[in-house]
Model the fold of this input.
Amino acid sequence: QVQLAESGGGSVQSGGSLKLSCAVSRDSYSGFSMAWFRQAPGKEREGVAVMDWVGRTRYADSVKGRFTISQDSPKNTLYLQMNSLKPEDTAIYYCAASRISGWLRLDDGNYHYWGQGTQVTVSS
Done:
């Protein structure tokens, strides 16, 4: 079993930055792909960024060049650095993990573990 716990959300003005963290409660998640999703009010959940175990990444077009996914394996922590935030980035952000090695898709199928989410609010 893998438990995920997000933190770092908050309120920021347009153009600002936030860094989200996701603590992974498992000694090793070798081979897992880790991702960030978000869900805005009234909208479907969408994939934001994913990283596989060897460090390959994929980003949604809407965040390319602004968001960076990274992980600190010794600390069992996944990060999402968000820069140049826009009001349309306002959403609940979720951390997710897939047991499928090399998984780099941003649709939310085949993600087996989810965190509870952290709210990000960007004001204009």
Notes: The chain has a mean pLDDT of 94. The longest strand covers residues 91-98.
